[in-house]
Amino acid sequence: MHCIAKPIAKSLSGLIITLLFVSFIIFLVMEAVPGDPAEIILGMSAQPDTLAALRSQLGLDRPFIERYLHWLTGLLSGDLGNSYTYSTSVAQLIVERLHVTLPLTGLAVMLSVLISLPLGVTASAKPNGIVDSFASAFSQIGIALPNFWIGLLLIIGIALTTGWFPAGGFPGWDNGFWPSLKALMLPSIALAIPQAAVLTRVTRAAVIEITNEDFVRTARAKGATPNYVLWHHVLPNALIPVVTMLGMQISVLIAGAILVENVFNLPGMGTLAYQALAQRDFIVIQNVVLFFAVVVIFINFLVDALYNILDPRLRIRR
């Protein structure tokens, strides 16, 4: 356990430093964006003394470092500030939108894994076979098509044609689990297909590479069954590059969620970010961007931790 805890603690300290650096860069970039929040709230015709009073109330007349430290202190205490547009707490806005975005991304990740792992393993069993040809075509098409375009095809081809799933909107979890799940099904498929296409290709290549290793041939020579070799020797080692790619795809998944949520008119984090950008609600933008950055950094931290569990060679070297 000590061999695992030490690298995890080291990664955790690096994560904290990275988060501080990212928060500073985000705040710096938002400061460089043209536009005065006080002027946006009051309008172009506001009097100069009214603008000055509101700027003082919002803390915009204080030095840059002081405002950054005040924002950072608020983050640590859970106070993210108030939205200029919605006139409510940014933390409350984020929590409300997470009720849509978290299930959506969770479904997308689950679907991409359920599609890619069986398809990639089956394709690697017989290279250049029928399943392998199908997996190759699926990977090429899935990588080439943007997820928002897949979402439009799903709306036209399934939602509007069959009526099995809604074409957009979200009824809310209070109105029933099944109607809400149906509203998220097509968007999650649109997000999952490009991720599954990439993971299928990575899984196939990883399984073929591990299958040709000496320890796999030794296991077969000792009389181990093909299923035992696959589940106990090939897959545990092939999962390392798959987990790596899955962690790297999280950032792509978040970027895709912004577009897909707008295509399906879902009140999630992506829609909140788009609306805040259109309305120049800077306090919402910087907190949402920081939240996305925290998610990506934390997922990379989990991937590093999984390395030490999946690959015993890392523990032996340490």
UniProtKB/TrEMBL annotation:
Descriptive protein name: ABC transporter permease
Keywords, comma-separated and alphabetical: Cell membrane, Membrane, Transmembrane, Transmembrane helix, Transport
Gene3D superfamilies xrefs: MetI-like (1.10.3720.10)
Compartments, as annotated in UniProt: Cell membrane
Pfam families, alphabetized: BPD_transp_1, BPD_transp_1_N
The keyword Transmembrane helix belongs to this UniProt entry's keyword annotation: yes
Transmembrane regions listed in the UniProt entry: 12-30, 102-123, 144-165, 177-199, 238-260, 288-310
InterPro entries referenced in this protein's UniProt entry, alphabetically: BPD_transp_1_N, MetI-like, MetI-like_sf
Membrane topology: Multi-pass membrane protein
Chief location category: membrane
UniProt similarity note: Belongs to the binding-protein-dependent transport system permease family. OppBC subfamily.
